[in-house]
Predict the 3D structure of the following.
Amino acid sequence: MCYTYYMKVSTGDYEVLYSSWAPSYRMNDVVLALAEEPEITIRISLRRDDIFGEPDIRLDFKKARTLTITVINPHKLSHMGIPEPVEVGKIGGKNLLFSFRVDMFGNYHSFAVTYAFLLGG
């Protein structure tokens, strides 16, 4: 017997459209590509910067329909993420937002990204 369930998940003023977890082995970038409108690519990469030293997250929207996220020096914290979701497009007149957290494993051996696409506003 097969059952299909629909669950509506929300947090504050946001509706959780989709959430999941993605592993990165050997420190490869994690790339999320939305194939339907809006077509958006989100690339998450980690970088060690011994000169800069401090943990940081940089968001870059310079390329059309692409959000590049660079997490710098995540080894200094147990996990890193953004405090508020960032808008990446619109669906059905609502803002499409993206939120994530990165967890590091070993000394730059691998990492995992927990992420969510949200609707709000």
The chain has a mean pLDDT of 88. The CA atoms of residues 16 and 118 lie 5 Å apart.
